[in-house]
Write a structure and sequence with these properties.
The protein is of the alpha+beta class and 85 residues long. The chain has 2 helices and 4 strands, in the order E-H-E-E-H-E. InterPro entries: Acetolactate_synth/TF_NikR_C, ACT-like_dom_sf.
Length: 85
């Protein structure tokens, strides 16, 4: 099974510090991290998207998602994919 957490961030300049604190605290269950936002240099977007591949127990993953969801301007979706057997 693969578990992916999709994180949509609004007002990046205001929420980025709090999001990073949670990511750091839960870093041991993050296997892969991809951050995407529109714009570069002086035209940096205030919206961002994180795609996180997670490891660990489902209860840990759900608590991690809950911690991120507590941050104003952040919404998440936990996705579990099961391979065909």
């Amino acid at each position: 099974m693969k578990t992916v957490l999709i994180v949509l961030i609004d007002n990046r300049s205001e929420t980025a510090v709090n999001v990073q604190k949670v990511l750091t605290a839960w870093g041991c269950i993050i296997k892969t991290r991809l951050g995407i936002h529109d714009g570069v240099l002086d035209k940096c977007s205030q919206h961002g998207l994180l795609v996180l591949e997670l490891v660990g127990e489902p209860s840990q993953q759900e608590e991690f998602e809950r911690k991120l969801d507590l941050i104003k301007g952040v919404s998440t979706q936990l996705v579990r994919l099961h391979p065909d057997e």
